[in-house]
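Hi V.,

Quick status before I head out on leave. The structure for the redesign project is tokenized and pasted below; the design run finished overnight.
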């Protein structure tokens, strides 16, 4: 029995030794895979930077054409399923004066981007011609930050203050972190998790036409539908009574 136990122990030692050697080999191969993945990321980044440069003249051309369509950008914003959730009615009215919307990625696209909202001259809300929200994503290990243009509101036109005084039951319902569009614009507390900015950069900006062209769907109020059904039922009852008579 003792001899048998020694054989089992020897077998276990051999298995552990083989397993340890295999794990070292796997680790070595994994390091090679990681090195290739890192190289691939660098190559993909170079390709993305190249095509960002190639896209620029087309974005500029598109922006010039968009200027011919009144309220193009505010319509695209209102039709976007997530971004529209930010907009109070008063803010929507303000954005009718927005004549240009742009997203500019930095030359090193890993380091960040800026979102620019350009407005008509002498509009009634604020003095700024351009509002910019810029994201620096910490490519140099400095940590992500964002900064927004200080809005120079005209007298009695500060929508941030006016909306904060508006009763909650008269505001649009939303399930978002931000209370309104200008709340989002001015908030720079968590730039790495700014979903609205990401949607603007990666969804709205590449193809705004798909949101501008979203068809208007008229939905009749449920009360009207119920009322119509009741009227139809009443007519049927009257017809049956006339037949019985």
């Amino acid at each position: 029995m003792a001899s048998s136990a020694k054989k089992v122990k020897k077998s276990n030692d051999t298995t552990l030794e083989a397993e340890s050697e295999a794990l070292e080999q796997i680790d070595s191969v994994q390091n090679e895979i990681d090195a290739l993945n890192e190289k691939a990321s660098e190559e993909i980044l170079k390709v993305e930077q190249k095509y960002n440069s190639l896209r620029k003249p087309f974005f500029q051309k598109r922006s010039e054409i968009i200027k011919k369509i009144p309220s193009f950008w505010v319509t695209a914003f209102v039709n976007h399923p997530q971004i529209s959730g930010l907009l109070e009615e008063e803010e929507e009215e303000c954005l009718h004066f927005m004549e240009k919307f742009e997203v500019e990625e930095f030359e090193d696209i890993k380091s960040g981007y800026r979102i620019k909202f350009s407005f008509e001259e002498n509009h009634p809300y604020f003095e700024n011609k351009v509002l910019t929200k810029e994201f620096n994503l910490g490519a140099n290990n400095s940590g992500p930050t964002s900064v927004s243009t200080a809005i120079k509101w005209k007298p009695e036109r500060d929508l941030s203050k006016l909306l904060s005084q508006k009763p909650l039951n008269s505001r649009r319902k939303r399930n978002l972190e931000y209370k309104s569009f200008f709340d989002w614009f001015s908030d720079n507390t968590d730039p790495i998790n700014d979903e609205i900015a990401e949607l603007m950069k990666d969804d709205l900006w590449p193809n705004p036409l798909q949101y501008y062209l979203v068809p208007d769907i008229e939905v009749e109020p449920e009360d009207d539908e119920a009322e119509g059904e009741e009227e139809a039922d009443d007519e049927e009852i009257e017809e049956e009574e006339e037949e019985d008579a």
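Above is the designed sequence. The two ends are 108 Å apart (CA to CA).

G. will cover questions while I'm gone.

Best,
W.
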